[in-house]
Structure formats: C-alpha cells, structure tokens
Amino acid sequence: MRVVGPAQRVGNGPEWDCESSGAPLRVLDPERPWFFAIDVRFDCYDADLRPISGMAVQDQVCDEVTA
Q1: Phi and psi based region of residue 65 (left: phi greater than 0; alpha: psi -120 to 50; beta: remaining)
Q2: Which of 5, 9, 36, 44 makes an SS bond possible with 18, Cβ 3.0 to 4.6 Å?
C-alpha cells in the first residue's frame, strides 16, 4: 500500500488517500456500511496505517525516554 496524499473526502479524523500496490481490495463506505466496492484507490484512517521501516513495530510503547 502507498499513501498518495491527503484524503479525497473529510471524515472523522486524519485520513489519507491510499493506493493498493497489489490486487484490488474490498473498500467499505463508512457512511453506507451496506455498500462496498472493489478498488485500488481509497481513503484510509491514519490510525489503521503502520509504517514499514524494516524494524519491528510495537503497537504500545511501554518505555519512556528520559530528557
């Protein structure tokens, strides 16, 4: 998945315009949960994205950094 830019529509939080680098995905519309489409381009909430850097990513940060 690749982040293309800011979301096409304004939603309930930070969103991004994303593009699938593989096969098309099933895309749901939060305003019409009974409706879905198959697409390679869609908006995605920031909270649902995780960075890919080659290093392990923890969902919860338990350690503090001292200044």
Answers
A1: beta
A2: 44
